[in-house]
UniProtKB/TrEMBL annotation:
UniProt keyword annotations, A-Z: Signal
Organism expressing this protein natively: Amycolatopsis minnesotensis
The protein's name in its UniProt record: Lipase family protein
Signal peptide bounds: 1-28
Pfam family, one: LIP
Gene3D superfamilies tied to this protein: 1.10.260.130, alpha/beta hydrolase (3.40.50.1820)
PANTHER family found in the cross-reference section: LIPASE 5 (PTHR34853:SF1), PTHR34853
Length: 413
């Protein structure tokens, strides 16, 4: 990639972030207490229930009481693990009907390095320019009066956490649902123990939110989940392996392979890699989103395997075909209303993937609202779509919490 093109992309993103108010000024200052202690779990890990809070430390965030937390959840193999996140409660009183809702915010792709965790970047630490979009989504939810429970998912930001199981269905669903439990159990939050719950996410977060919608009824049946918003969800990993390969965002495919390797070590994914592929894995593990895009864009995965075959060619073969099937979203009916939104011009995750997930849910009798996400242009449409998605998600959840979810529009998808 030429220096001039890279500089131009950075300038475009910077101008957009500044113009829309999603730069760190919209977010936070440093944590009032030592925040780093949150990321060191007790050893041995104490027995407890999913969602139990292991540690908490106050942080600061504009117009909200912010608390960083370490809580218990489950990984892809159902092993109990510590997960970090943030609970944010607006300073303004709740003026809506009933008790103040808690919305689980599932972050979009933020990277693999310890410095990339959203609980850090929301507090003005680490991250990159893209991190500002996380704050923009959180601000929209807080502005509606919702409390926000944000998960970091599993990853190396927690000591001993291993690699981030990027877009792995079970692990991400568990961490999203358990952060709501943690928010309800956090004494200083003042939040209702059995109040209304929403879930929202875009991109990776859309996948995590959609996965949580499918698992909520069995994994966390006590949560009163009123509605789930899933924006631009990467619901079919096999389709993404083809669409991302050789493109601008091939680094995200690298993240997904790291996620498979973490969640399914028995698959021995690294046995397929040549020295260049192994080196890419080592590099990608240290990157946040923007660095990953610029460092790996336009790389062909056929140059990274011992056989010279692209990664997509392996995903329909054992053991990877089973892994792909286990992580496909759309196979279970969400018991609550769901909104699925995707830009027809999405330049990262083809809109057909999100639409197929919505159709699959409709076929199972779910209450699905589909909407074409408004895009500013085909260029950077996935990233810039986040700005529209945050307002759409917030507005839809406001209606949901008022009992106005509607009956969906399955017949017109």
């Amino acid at each position: 990639m030429s220096f001039s093109l890279r500089r131009g992309l950075i300038a475009t993103l910077t101008a957009t972030l500044v113009a829309t108010g999603t730069v760190p000024a919209a977010g936070a200052a440093s944590a009032a207490a030592d925040p780093n202690s949150i990321y060191t779990p007790p050893s041995p890990l104490p027995a407890g229930q999913n969602g139990d809070v292991l540690k908490s430390a106050p942080s600061t965030y504009t117009n909200a009481k912010a608390t960083r937390i370490l809580y218990l959840s489950r990984d892809n193999k159902d092993k109990q693990v510590p997960v970090s996140g943030t609970v944010l409660v607006p300073n303004a009183p709740w003026n809506g009907p009933g008790e103040r809702p808690i919305v689980a915010y599932a972050p979009f792709t933020f990277g693999m390095g310890p410095q990339c965790a959203p609980s850090k970047t929301l507090a003005g630490e680490g991250g990159d320019l893209i991190s500002g979009f996380q704050g923009g989504f959180v601000n929209a939810l807080l502005g509606a009066g919702f409390a926000v429970a944000q998960t970091d998912y599993l990853g190396p930001w927690v000591e001993g956490g291993g690699e981030h199981p990027y877009v792995m269905r079970l692990a991400e669903a568990h961490t999203v649902l358990d952060v709501v439990r943690a928010a309800q159990r956090l004494p200083e939050s003042g939040l209702p123990k059995g109040g209304p719950v929403g879930i929202a996410g875009y991109s990776e977060g859309g996948s995590a939110a959609a996965s949580a919608a499918e698992l909520a009824g069995t994994y966390a049946p006590e949560l009163d989940v009123k509605g789930v918003y899933a924006g631009a969800p990467p619901a079919d990993k096999a389709a993404l392996a083809k669409s991302l390969d050789g493109g601008m965002y091939v680094g995200f495919l690298g993240y997904a392979l790291i996620g498979i390797n973490q969640a399914y070590p028995e698959a021995r994914l690294m046995d397929l890699a040549n020295p260049a592929g192994a080196d890419l894995f080592l590099q990608a593990r240290q990157t946040c989103t923007l660095d990953s895009v610029f460092r790996f864009m336009f790389k062909q995965t056929s140059t990274l395997t011992k056989s010279g075959q692209p990664v997509a060619s392996f995903l329909n073969q054992p053991p990877f075909d089973k892994i792909v099937a286990e992580n496909r979203i759309g196979t279970s009916k969400p018991p609550m209303p769901v909104m699925v939104e995707h830009s027809p011009m999405d330049d990262v995750i083809p809109a057909a993937i999100g639409k197929q997930m919505a159709k699959d849910w409709c076929g199972k009798g779910a209450n699905v609202q589909w909407k074409d996400l408004t895009s500013f242009s085909p260029f950077l449409s996935h990233a810039l779509g986040m700005m529209t998605a945050s307002g759409d998600a917030t507005a839809w959840l406001q209606g949901v919490f008022k009992g106005q979810a509607g009956n969906g529009n399955c017949g017109r998808i």
